[in-house]
């Protein structure tokens, strides 16, 4: 009798357990999964995936290029600070006071570096997933990207992890294992995969043994084919083109475009899903990689390689600008190289600069505006199109103090 019931209920039971674990970790119920905004297929995963012997399926190709939306919002590095992340989203009118999506048909791009330097990394991943699902119901799109810190963590490089970040993953691991035990009670479900399989029971190099559970949990969650890596990171894009804007965390060189933007996205996805070994592809490692490059990010414009940027943009049909995070702009979002390079990392996380949230808005006609929470620019009137440079930094400042700062397209 019990076996018969279990044969009929595996998907429901598994879904219930997953919902229970999610709520225990993030504190809210995720809406029903939408069509995937980062893939061309947009097919909902079959609920039978948790049953014994699920049918094989190949992942759909990731969508690398999108047409221009009526409203496009770009958000920089978040680094484990959920409060500042929500402030940035509210600044753009994307969520209400109850943290629900109100952005309508807007498209949002978060350019990576959710991980490290803070203690709300998982909470942000869950929150962005919630917004993806909510936005899809009103025709909106939320696209998440890889930063160098996502790549580092999948490789097991935890140099910038905080104690609170380790604690958060230890809590996740406890609930995840509880969920696996619940699933294991029903013979109709496939045996849950042990996320700790193959991991050592101790690390001699870790002096503070209180950190050990968090380190072990973080490795299990984020290594290639780990539960968090596969669920939240594998569908991230590494490079993205929306209309006439190219998005990348660090920067693109001509060799990256020649290699193939779609190819880069799919190879990184396959690596995170455990199909390409332990280490990321070479174009995601090193100072000239797509997630580490700083050739176009120096605050002093003369130190930016504008000629290389022009060459790269010329190889991408219709591209007018490259939008990047990665390098903190202490004076806020700005552009150099005739606004062909827009830098949007303002170091808003408390763990990495504690700057005031700012986001970039691009309207359908390619009008660029900076939406800022800086009180110096909150007099409530529209900025003039004229901009001045201050101290040779290439910082685009209005001549008066508005809340919305325009950047010439």
Strand portion: 5-15%
Count of helical segments?
Answer: 11
CATH superfamily of the largest domain: Metallo-dependent phosphatases
Global structural class:
alpha/beta
Distance between the termini: 68 Å
State the total count of DSSP E strands.
12
Q: What average pLDDT do the residues reach?
A: 85
Examine the secondary-structure arrangement and name the CATH architecture of the largest domain. Answer: 4-Layer Sandwich
Question: What is the count of structural domains?
Answer: 2
- Seen as an oligomer or otherwise, the chain set is single chain
How helical, in percent, are the residues?
A: 25-40%
| Rg, Å, rounded | 22 Å
Main sheet, how many strands, which sense, barrel?
6 strands, mixed
Report low-confidence residues grouped into runs of 5 or more. 39-56, 379-405
CATH class of the largest domain: Alpha Beta
CATH topology name of the largest domain, in short, is Purple Acid Phosphatase, chain A, domain 2
- Strand sequence of the main sheet, in spatial order? 1-5-6-7-9-8
Protein name: Calcineurin-like phosphoesterase domain-containing protein
Domain Calcineurin-like phosphoesterase: 71-327
Pfam families: Metallophos (PF00149)
Biased composition (Pro residues): 53-62
Walkthrough of the structure:
It is a single chain. The protein is of the alpha/beta class. It is built from 11 helices and 12 strands. Helix 6 (163-183) crosses helix 7. The longest helix is centred in the middle third of the chain and has 21 residues, at 163-183. It starts with a helix and ends with a strand.
